[in-house]
Queue: 3 jobs
Job 1
Amino acid sequence: MSANTDWESNEELQLFREYLRIPSVHPHPNYDGCLEFLKRQAKQLELPLAVYYPSNADNPVVVMTWIGLEPELPAVLLNSHMDVVPVFPENWTHPPFGADIDKQGRIYARGAQDMKCVGMQYLGAIRALKQSGSRFRRTIHISFVADEEMGGALGMRPFVHTDEFRALNVGFGLDEGLASPTDEFPVFYAERSVWRFYFKASGTAGHGSLLLPGTAGEKLNYIVGKMMELRRSQVLRLENNPELTIGDVTTVNLTRLSGGVQSNVVPPQLTACFDVRLALDVDHRQFEADMHRWIEEAGGGVELEYEHQRPRVEPTATDESNPFWMAFKSATDELGLDIKLQIFTGGTDSRYLRELGIPALGFSPMNNTPVLLHDHDEFLQADVYLRGIEIFKKIIKNVANV
Ligand SMILES: [Zn+2]
């Protein structure tokens, strides 16, 4: 029997591929298929399942629960999101919701890495643990949320503030990480704070043939210059220290410019939008004060309007003070995994747990795999997927016995 036939007939891979074929895709994801599929999984695993709607009827949160031997202890949450980002099928060599498997065992689908893999690996690990008769001290909740790819505003973000979430009594969470093209496995313990804001500069309007004082263009030019200085300083920090990754520095990008009415008229208002991810070492109040000082120096009359201004969130401790970290680490050590602690470059639902003071780690066990999240031809190799189930078996056993 060839490896290919093994992969085709493997039950864990069949379930993974079935889940991948459900097109829960933005911009208007329909979760009905996921719900039906997950209800079947819960039944097969003999786990109770609950569905919550923290925002509206289109955005469910599914939670399966495996009660522990000491259910009064804070529980372990294994979280994943059901939604996936849009596809451009013309750029794919396989249908993006086909879950085709090629001769090398690569399974192609949107969500193969981000992050239907992890959700199904949790279930695969729990299936194996249940079959072996294992029981653990802590209750384990396996959650499947909506809307992560849009920032979780209709999913995890409101969910963590509901009575239903509080009743889950979560003490530790696992959520998504990233693939790694090398042997290493990145583990994410923190995220930067996303700030997105508009500088709306008002100034003297008039004819384009004059040199009017206090124009919107001059003001905006001054402020954009200051933002670009900050950007350059962070580029240098990265260049000068090979130990740093992009998650360690503040990223600054000018993302939108607008304004003007006619090409020969000095406009009354011009607007610039920035996407900034504040590094963990940035004093938020100081940064805000700096921006207001630049506005004053530019001559005033500039409104600062926030689209996002996320608070600083304490990183999850990765030392003896956090027994869940110690349990996680002993599992990956026993398996001989080469893990590397990192700060996540983007945002994940982990931040909503950390904001409540709940320790959370981001981990997707996909090494020797190109990072293809949100990319065309997203794939995960079958053996990497199956190895991930083995890895989660050990991790779940350890963290649920803390
Ligand atoms: Zn994701």
Note: The chain has eleven helices and 17 strands.
Job 2
Amino acid sequence: MAKIDIIPVIPFDEGVAQGKALGRQELRARTAAALRGRYLKATLGAMSRTGLAREVMARLETPPDYGRYPELEDLYPEKLDELRGLAEGSACTLPEAAVYSYVCFRQHIEDWYWRHQVCGEPGHCSGVMFDGPDGVIGGQSSESLPPPAPVRYRWRPPPPHALLRQLKADRPPLALRKPRTGYIESWGVGNEKGVALLCGVSCSVLLDEPIEDTWPIGPVPLLRFAGNVRELAALYERYTLHNWSRVNQIWADTSGQAVAVEKCFRRIGLRWIGPDRTLWVTEGHYESPEMAAYMRAKRLEYLRRTGKDLGAEDMQYATDCHVRFTRLAELCHLPLGRGYKHIRRVLTDHAPFPRAICRHGGPDTAPYDRSVTLNSRFEDVTHNRQFIRKWISWKKFPCEVPETVVQYPVPPKEKTRAGRRPERKGLHQKRK
Ligand SMILES: [Zn+2]
């Protein structure tokens, strides 16, 4: 049995540690650099420093709307504590620490916003989930443009789908961070209640709407409050502006309930698992009608503004993503039992480009077919287990290396699938 350590999370102490590591000089230097930087120079940077500090402190001291955002009743005081700790640890005043925190947050969201306005992405990631005889499982294949290949590298066609070698399971000790309220967010694969994010593939919308400024809260830890996937989805909808990421994800719990979340900066679409007991997502493709329509409208706006057409290279990427989505549907419905065997078959699929899930692009393949699978993994939320395969740069593709298995201890009370949908006496249920 692996050793489990449960460490209480104390926001003030974490702030102190952060402040000590940073130091007063560095904190001030970073604040000044952010205010001079390209994103904030014309706005926050143009304000007087006392004016900025006054405004930031006013924001910090205004409690959020707890009626609309009940979980912030727990999170907001913790943010205050963390900032007080930061001030103490770095030997700064509270306004200095608050301004530092605020300009870092603003710089971060501005950077994300501007970085994804126009450029297409080279990745082709895919994710899949099954509720079957081996448990509730799901995983993803992560693709990217690889580093340059060695001079003498020659491309070899991969097999139709790859064979498997599996290593002995690793049972690492667990250090679990327990918040003052709510559940342990990360207990191996999922949270303490067996709710897990099984895959997340990036999905940018060209010319997306600006990211909402939600400081001092920022992102809300959904797994701290979600006792099952229904609650997770309700939280995600409530905090869609706080958790602004641009991704397609699959969330599941040990009962087999699952949802695909389609997310851009300010919008969210949900697709629930149906009687076929499977879900799948791909980068660059939204399937829910509202999100698909939004992405399409933004792509057309992008073409209008740039003077490009649907045959442009960025749009080839978009078409590729839709094609792979349908390929995944086909793979998820193969009669392979929705278990480990099935998910491994999906993740090592080598259909012709652009349908393939496992990507083997290289210097010898067509210019557009250059992406490589860097990571291929799946997780079993029922048994709290991970199966991982990684690319060895220009030597072995993930489908050619043995599978590394990590076995985490199963959280108490969630040991069997017999305990489906446990009664929950959680925070935000009590408040309803
Ligand atoms: Zn492969």
Note: The chain has two domains: 9-115, 126-414.
Job 3
Amino acid sequence: MKTIASFYIAFIICNTILFSQDSLVEIKNNNDFSFEIRYATTTNFIGEKLYDCEICLLKPQVAEALKEANKYFNQKGYRIKLYDCYRPLDIQKKMWKKVPRPTYVANPYTKGSVHNCGAAIDLTLETLEGCFVDMGTDYDYFGVEAHIDYNNFSEEIIANRNLLSNGLRKFGFQTIRTEWWHFSYKKNKSYPILNSPLPCEN
Ligand SMILES: [Zn+2]
């Protein structure tokens, strides 16, 4: 009996740990943030709907940092528009099958993407009135014009990009060279890769 009880307690503890690793919080789809979750539509580089609903899930610490960054942009007359947040590993595999180029899609069979941990966000800005803010290229544009060190743009576009990246860096996010829209929360090293499906209601 004692052995069974020990096993049962160990089972509960392990499950608790697994659950806490998996815990992601939702950024509510209200007026605080603008939502344009592209993988919930066919307007993306795959050309297929990959998500069953528009939802943004993140690790709690990442969500808090993102909310603080959004308040910062609000004071300047902007709000964050979300393109992608947590991405299940199985979706990463679908993307890799279509575009097996590590410059643009993280390899799901090696390290995976920081999106798979719920610690990266693809985003842009819009004004508080909902007007478009020009960043020079569309989201998921695979070319040099999307690189953060490409500067053959108007002063306005360069200022918009600087506003975005400098603002997010203040709240613990890092850029990557090839995608102006991608921000990884810098303290993500201990976060595990996840593959829980998005909790969409049928
Ligand atoms: Zn990204």
Note: The radius of gyration is 18 Å.
